[in-house]
Amino acid sequence: MPLPSLAPGARPVPVVLDCDPGHDDALALLLAHADPRLDLRAVTVVHGNQTVDRCLRNALAVCTVAGITGVPVARGADRPLVRPLRVAADIHGESGLDGPLLPEPTVRADDRDAVTLLADTLRAADEPVTVVATGALTNVALLLRAHPALRDRVREVVWMGGSTGRGNIQPLAEANAANDPEAAAEVLDALPLTMVGLDLTHQALVTPEVVARFTALGTPVGTLCAELMTFFGDRYAEVFGMTDPPLHDPVAVAMVADPTLVRTVRANLVVETQGRWTAGATVVDLDRVTGRPDTATVGLELRVGAFFDLLLDAVATYR
After folding, report:
1. Residues ≥6 apart with Cβ < 8 Å to 160
2. Would you call 72 helix, strand, or coil by DSSP?
3. Are 170 and 277 in contact (CB under 8 A)?
4. Computed from CA positions of residues 254, 259, 263, 268, in that sequence, does the dihedral angle turn out positive or negative?
5. Which stretches make up the Inosine/uridine-preferring nucleoside hydrolase domain (predicted)?
């Protein structure tokens, strides 16, 4: 089916994708560029699933395969604010995007660093920009430190990170939060934030039927997605014992394009930075037991079928 079009008189939402490709980031990038309800102004890359240089190459390779041009892609932070670098080679492989044979990128990185590109993009926009972050929030925290006057130019940060009570790198800490909890805490204190956490993204499971739908598109990008998800699924089965892998990052992009896909609540959210066993935990007061004010929007329930239909329709636009 064709992607939904803009409502009469509506304007696409200006977005920046801050990512660390990563298998699920790659699909998030494809969706962000294809959906007509989104205006992808820039892509910035951060450390996380692999080193920032490997993540940058992966972003450029995906753009090359998909024919995404005219969107600047910039290298960002190569390490967390205060903690040592940690990568996820056990899930994403040594390249960060293991599985398919990717071409040498012909799309080139922007000459600016990520913070400069973010600042320039915010200044140039005629309305506040939504930052969709699918990695550690280091780049966004560095933007706030370098350009505090630009806070009002960010509509919100929609962050694939955290959870309301589970972890995937520590018992209570999700990887994007645990990789730089200090950055997450700084961003949460400064900007409106929507958390797209594990409890939400673990509803978006890539079943064999989903992989078959990618393959059936019969296009290079459809094949790329099928191969990425096959490798991703094999790693999740080996590391976590999950039959089908959760497709985290595209959920954050999808809910910006279509907010009806996700049921959300407002809640008090804090990021643990000091705990010996819980650093990186996102503490969400769903039951309002603390009496603290609401500080974030938290995604709880995903319309799974509609989400995958949207993602497949987006991938189908690439020929």
Report:
1. 28, 133, 134, 176, 196, 197, 201, 248, 249, 251, 252
2. coil
3. yes
4. positive
5. 15-309
Rounded Cα–Cα distance for residues 311 and 309 (Å): 6
Q: What angle do CA 73, 77, 81 make, to 5 degrees?
A: 155
Instruction: Report the C-alpha gap between 224 and 100 in whole angstroms.
Output: 6
Instruction: Show the 3-state SS of 204-263.
Output: CECCHHHHHHHHHCCCHHHHHHHHHHHHHHHHHHHHHCCCCCECCHHHHHHHHHCHHHEE
User: Among the options 33, 47, 202, 248, which is catalytic?
Assistant: 248
The whole-angstrom distance between residue 181's C-alpha and the CA centroid of its chain comes to 16
pLDDT tens for each residue of 24-77: 999 999 999 999 999 999 999 999 999 999 999 999 999 999 999 999 999 999
Query: 158: helix, coil or strand?
Result: strand
Token pair 């009806």 is at which residue?
260
pLDDT, tens only, 7-17: 888 899 999 99
**Amino acid (1-letter code) at residue 203:** Q
Question: Does residue 300 sit in helix, strand or coil?
Answer: strand
Per-residue pLDDT at 258 exceeds 90: yes
Band the pLDDT of 22: cuts 50, 70, 90.
very high
Taking all residues of the chain, what is their mean pLDDT, rounded to a whole number?
97
Q: What is the pLDDT of residue 4?
A: 86
User: What's the fold here for domain 13-316?
Assistant: Inosine-uridine Nucleoside N-ribohydrolase; Chain A (3.90.245)
Radius of gyration of the chain measured on its C-alpha atoms = 18
Active site residue 147: no
Cα 146 off chain centre by:
23
